[in-house]
Specification:
By secondary structure, this protein is an alpha/beta fold. It has 3 helices and 7 strands, in the order αββββαβαββ. A hairpin with a 2-residue loop joins strand 3 and strand 4 (82-84). The chain is elongated and about 85 Å long. The mean pLDDT is 81.
Length: 146
């Protein structure tokens, strides 16, 4: 009626369970993820590369997602990162104006390259006005005095 205790003499060794967690792999993975996010975060601003002019105006708060219209340095027109010809612009703007708008109205962000001809920007603004899209904000980068 005696209980037998396991001994090391049987050739089978029992190891005690590991009571510590090795955090080195976790830290390695977290640092890699941090580096990935730090590299990709600046790329998420906008799809069309535009060299914006500087301004001392403050940033606007964004409640509803605005429509982004960009004009690159060759004069190409992009609506929410999709290329649009100048001939198709009035039809596309009319479709945007016909969509249901938030209570405060549809907001349009116009981003134009600073090297672009002023007349080209004004033609796009005229088409926006003709389509009834009057809440247009011109996007710029912050100046040195901020």
């Amino acid at each position: 009626m005696g209980a037998t205790l396991p001994s090391k003499s049987r050739g089978r060794s029992r190891r005690a369970p590991m009571s510590e967690i090795n955090v080195t792999p976790l830290v390695d993975v977290m640092l890699v993820l941090l580096i990935i996010f730090m590299v990709t975060a600046p790329l998420l601003v906008a799809g069309v590369p535009v060299d914006l002019p500087e301004s001392r105006a403050g940033a606007l708060d964004q409640q509803a997602k605005p429509v982004q219209i960009a004009l690159d340095n060759q004069g190409g027109i992009f609506i929410d990162d999709l290329a649009v010809t100048e001939a198709a612009l009035p039809r596309r703007l009319a479709a945007i104006a016909a969509e249901p708008a938030p209570p405060e109205g549809r907001r349009i962000y116009l981003r134009a390259d600073k090297r672009l001809d002023y007349g080209r920007v004004m033609r796009v603004m005229g088409e926006l006005n003709r389509a009834g899209l009057n809440r247009v904000a011109l996007v710029s980068v912050g100046g040195e005095d901020q």
